Amino acid sequence: MPMAGGVFASRQAHRLTYQWQSETEVDRLQDRARKLEKRLWPDRGKPVPRGRNRERLLEAWEDADGAFENLFAATVLRR
């Protein structure tokens, strides 16, 4: 809970929103692609997915990345 003047107040009272409430569809697709990318190619020391799991993640990443690029390009062309 946030504080206002030393008193706890609700999110509604401060008119605060969660991050996902202000994200666009482009933002959501980009986040999805980024999370899948991080699982496929993790930081040093973490295990890399193998076998069918890797294939599934790679396919999902390709779909998410392609969808993001298409939607982003459409958004840019509209402006």
Low-pLDDT regions: none
Q: State which percent range the strand residues make up.
A: 5-15%
Number of strands: 2
SSE order in H/E notation? EEHHH
Describe this structure in words.
The protein has a domain at 25-78. It is 61% helix and 5% strand. The chain is built from three helices and two strands, in the order E-E-H-H-H. Strands 1-2 form a two-stranded antiparallel sheet. The chain is flat and about 55 Å long.
Compact overview of the structure:
By secondary structure, the chain is mostly helical.
Topology:
Elements (H helix, E strand, L loop, with lengths): L2 E2 L2 E2 L2 H4 L10 H16 L10 H28 L1
Antiparallel strand pairs: 1-2
Helix pairs in contact: 2-3
Key structural traits:
flat, 2 strands
